[in-house]
Amino acid sequence: MPVGWWASRDPQAPSAKVEKTADARSLPPRNRQFSGRQDTLLDIRRGWERGSIQVLSGPGGAGKSQLALEYAHLHADDYDVVWWIDAEHAVATASSLAELAIALGVADRKTEVPACVAALTRHLEHRDRWLIIFDDATPATLRSMLPDAGGHRLITSRTPGWDQWARVVGVPALPRRESVELLRRRNPTISEEDAAGLAEALGDLPLALSQAAGFMTRTGTSAPDYSRLLSGQTAVLLHEGLDASHPQSMTAVVSVGAQRLRRDEPAGLEAIRTCAFLASEPIPVGWLVTSAATEVALRRGLERAAEHSLATVDRDGVRMHAVTQHVLGELLSPKDRNRARSAAAALVSRQAPGDPLDAGVWAEWARLLPHLVAVDPAASDEPALRDLACNAVMYLAARGLVDQADVLATELRDAWLPPDGRETEHTLWVAHGLAMVRRVQRRFKEARTLDEAAFRGRCHLLGHNHRRTLASASNLAIDLYELGDHPAAYRLDRETYDRRRKWLGDDDRDTLASGNNLADDLRELGRREEAYELTRTTLARMKQVLGADDPSTLNCAGNLGSDLRALGRYQEALAVDEDTFARMTRVLGPDHYVTLTVADYLRQDLQALHRYRRARRLAQDIHARRLRQPGADRRDTEQR
């Protein structure tokens, strides 16, 4: 592609002036219902200082064309020439430019289109006060059709890849307050609360909001009724409610885009159908790659999907707006819908990030979780998807996202437990996870009941020495410890530690966790020197095997501070706890329940060393943060 015409004109360079022949205006009528986007309009206005080409980029239905039209009408007096071009096709674009050349008097109707465009290009190079809007363009559409210098070019596009030639202005969904304003401006009878609920249901997408407002106004449908009808009838509803300013419905945008994608890149359509049953958060492209042989075709297909308003594709992955997902899903035949839904579930099942207690993979868990929820593991009987869902509960609890963990675990257990109440491997796994949640919430009696059931069931199904059975035994010991039965906790921890050393090895993560918990028991039983030595050796091994910043290592380091404090070695305890607190704040965050527990250890050290002012400030900070937390558990909480 020639780069010259994309280059921004140097504002300092003198330009040769010629006598202008005429002014020209050609714009669609202004949308009197337009509202919001004031920040973006100002951004476009200021953007001309950095270049003469700006591209409004965003998903279908985001309102790019309406935004460009509003800008053109708002600032029309700043220009002598304002011309709107439907630029989806190169031939039509050239014809529209030829019409502009004729309107400006630099060509006549006998002149062939290429000659008209060439004459227009030469003419506009010597004029500054012009604005041409290219609606729905691609770089290929505009190739070699514009001058190197002159006025302003405002482009709307669904196609990525403009960055090297133009300033890109993102046009996402509306902020919620602007969505509410749009709905209430179109339909003043809607309350602010109902408008906010409807905006949430429609994902703040301007085209969908405009159609909803139009439909409700014409049919007398209330906002709550419209929201109810959206469930399962999104495609039908979003085919209605059009006005003159929106020539194509949201359903038509999706339907036409899917038809074109089927024609151009079938691999892209298959991928987009799968994405329709995932969450609207980014989907890494790598997840969709099934083989090296088909990767190029897939990536080409995703690019075409973006061009057809079905998705956006960037370095974070593929994004589909929730409304687009619902519409596309409803447009599929029952057979294709089931196939796409199964493909989405299988895709999620293949992405298991690994140990949910390993902070090194938490970013992967965070990326996966919304998509796991979207495929509804509670309704699935696929073992791999159920495994993933069980581990997701552990991840959420480990991250301190206790309310989310509680909701997911409860939903899974209620759905998976058979009518006869007979436990299965997965119901026991969820019981184990739910007990972890109850422990963090400091509901220790409930945790013990769940852990006892999980331990008994796993002994029966898996045997006494299975990794998951030993995990249930270890967590039951934690419950006993927190309920004050330290002798019973010690006996169970001692047996579990010995079994883990034998069957899993001394350096296994679970074995190291047992060593940490056993040291807790020893401290509470008054065997402080033994507790200190076991904690010290376990911590050294954890640092070597797991790393100094692993959450289990940091938890053990906090217990080392407790051992030192119990031995009256307050200065050493302070040094250990300060380091551990700093690391936990960095790794887990300042509000995580384990971070707050270690913060309290640090407060105790300061108190013992008579540093009362700092201890009091820290106590106040801990109290304020704990008001936002469901509880704090100082023991090592395991995963399996």
Automatic annotation (TrEMBL):
SUPFAM superfamilies: P-loop containing nucleoside triphosphate hydrolases, TPR-like
Transmembrane segments: none
One Pfam family from the record: TPR_12
Region described as Disordered: spans on this chain: 1-34
Origin superkingdom: Bacteria
NCBIfam families for this protein: FxSxx_TPR
Protein name (database record): Tetratricopeptide repeat protein
Organism, scientific name: Actinoplanes auranticolor
